[in-house]
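Lab notebook, bench 4. The sequencing result for the construct came back, and we need a structural model before the next group meeting so we can plan mutations. Quick request posted to the team channel:

Model the 3D structure of this chain.
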Amino acid sequence: MSKQTFGSRAAEAKGPKYTSSTRTFQVAEDIVPVAELKARLGEIVRGLDGRPRPLVITLNGKPAAVMMSPHAYDRLSEQSRFVQSVELGLADADAGRVIDDAELGRRLARRREVRRRR
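Done. Here's the predicted structure in token form:
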């Protein structure tokens, strides 16, 4: 995958790196002013699938929006749902809302039986 930059940003020296999870945030490559976004919208949107990181859109020099491909958004949403499910499970365990293996087997068997009758 080739590195993709937008507008005059390609001529800039690489800025400081900030890390978020396993991806490295590049200030010179990952931030685009809203005026540049307007001028190059088609090109930028077409390039989203090839980007390893979201694109931060600034307005008056401050972060205003984040753009990413639909695939990246779906992956982020799935990760968020997974983490939320784990947190809910841990909260259930902490609150004592747990059952043993035998009870789980009985409940699953009842659920399968109800579905078969439908």
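The CA atoms of residues 76 and 82 lie 10 Å apart.
Will bring this to the meeting.
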